[in-house]
Specification:
Layout lengths: L3 E3 L2 E3 L11 H15 L15 E2 L6 E2 L6 E5 L2 E5 L2 H9 L1 H5 L8 H4 L4 E2 L7 E2 L13 E2 L11 H26 L11 H17 L1 H12 L5 H21 L19 H33 L5 E6 L2 E6 L8 E4 L8 E6 L2 E4 L1 H4 L5 E3 L4 E2 L4 E2 L4 E7 L5 H14 L3 H31 L4 H15 L3 H20 L7 H6 L5 E4 L11 E7 L1 H11 L5 H12 L8 E6 L3 E6 L2 E6 L9 H12 L3 E7 L2 E9 L6 H10 L3 E5 L4 H11 L3 E3 L4 H13 L6
Amino acid sequence: MPAIRRAGTLRLEDAGVSSVVSNWRLATTGARLNRKYRMNNPFQILSKPVARVKDPVCGMMVDPEKAPGRYELDGHAYSFCNLGCMVKFRAEPERYLHPESYVAPATHATATEYTCPMDPQIVRDKPGACPICGMALEPKTFAAGAEETNPELDDMSRRFRLSLWFTIPLFALAMGQMFPGFEHLPAWVSWIELALASPVVLWAGWPFFERAWTSVKFRSPNMFTLIGIGTGVAYVYSLIAVIAPGLFPDSFRTHNGRVPVYFEAAAVIITLVLLGQVLELRARGRTSAAIKGLLNLAPQTARFVFNGREQDVALDLVRAGDQLRVRPGERLPVDGVVVEGSSAVDESMLTGEAISAEKQAGSKVNAGTMNGSGALLIRAERVGADTVLSHIVRLVNEAQRSRAPIQRLADSVASYFVPAVVLCAVAAFAVWAWFGPEPRLAHALVSAVSVLIIACPCALGLATPMSIMVGTGKGASAGILVRNAEVLERLRDVDTLLVDKTGTLTEGRPKLTSFEGSNEALRLAASVEQGSEHPLAAAIVAGAHERGLTLQAATAVKAIAGRGIRGEVAGHAVAIGNDAAVSGAMDRFASRADTMRASGETAVFIAVDGRMEAVAGISDPVKATTQDALEQLRREGVHVVMLTGDNRATASVIAKKLGIDEVRAEVTPDQKHEVVREFQSAGRKVA
């Protein structure tokens, strides 16, 4: 067996082993070659040595010629075992080339910023309370993904539950002394009240005392200032009355010689304020959920395409210029342009139009929109924070933190209100101490604490920002984007409302609303239409399913642009479309089609084997809530105008059905802007 060894590689030129060589000779030859050339498998024939390189991300050895991913940096080509490693390397090459000296960018290390809804100028790098108003800070931005817990809400909920457990028996014990026969309870009952009140005041209510002290330190009195002073005075006074009652003069004592205690007042106030905090934080959390819902419209991964290979990668690793595959039924991850494929994309979350938009090569697409039944290859143009969806989220987020003009008035009043309340409390104490019945000082203290607690300006400080947060949050969840708080305030002055028709007054999804013909004709038509993405086709298919008809597979299906569709089902030739798309006599259905058109429906003819068999009326039904909404607007004195790009006949039918007097039909988007200016120039306040 002659052999030549070149460059460390054995090439067998003539094995000279016939099929009758015994296993013994083959094994002997293999063993001899193995000893001579140190080969693990002497019968593995290699044409040339393979120089493998290391994947800089995962460390796996890769054949450069067969590597799924290659990336050039500073004139050097790097090979990767998969596309995931390649996009990770591309995002942070220094992290993998020089791990010992790599420092993460500041944007990765910066924590979420927190701000105050009432005082947006307050920005902190961690949760806490606003030094001006005392409200809990909230994050300026939200991350997509799983629902995050609110540590402030969790903390306040725990404190409220504990305070409730201690306050209920404390309140019952204190109020029980007002019933006949229980007026003269033993002195040790006050010690029980002290034991029950202390956890509520000293632990559950501690955040309020911290905020009260902060307000004093920053010279910005707020509702927590009053709560801290009121409950603190009541608790400390009662504590001294229990531990050292001899320090109090007779003017503090009741008819039985005891100094009254007010533990239940301090505990009940703190418990109620805690309940208010929990309700407020929950309301803010529901409002924030609308923003998170918008963020979650965009998927967290994208199907990255490179050199014919595909792999799912994290969305934050995608860059402008990358090609991505969007499969049927998936949401688009980025803003971009279609490179290959065609599909109908549901853009209702951006445009409000529920009818899907046809997309083909060259069409623009946006993140968060839903792909239909076709696969698309897109080129990313705007990713991450640059997408239209992210811009909408920022608008909603900023609108929630914006301040309405009336808020300035509320802030001005609050700045004088708290000091005025403290002065009133001091005056109440003085008047009761001088003119009140015995025990004067005890009554004076209760009166002063009552003024402090009852006058807490909670509603004054929270009403406007909470209204803005709830209004913008509910609007976002309903598809209404409010630009800022001033818009909400000015909305009350609107006297003219211009509304679109499709998807606003109507459902935006065409339905089979009338049908003349046999169920068999409808079944055959739906069988042909079930492969089409056209909205009218979907209406016919849905109508057949509602009637319980069983569809069959269609063959030789061919769409005729602007006219209809043809196909064969179970040996029958079926044609669906307008009067120019089908053949056969239409006299039988002509009058019925005219009636459908007069009522705002689109007439679609169905022919089977060259004979007209049916006509279907398809329309966009009015929403069930539209009539009531319009009635409410009319009662408010708002003049409603339908402003639509639909044809005049259909628009007039819908307007007559809804009682809308003024209709502007067949209006293009740029013309709609001119109509708005026309009404404004006439002195109208337009929305």
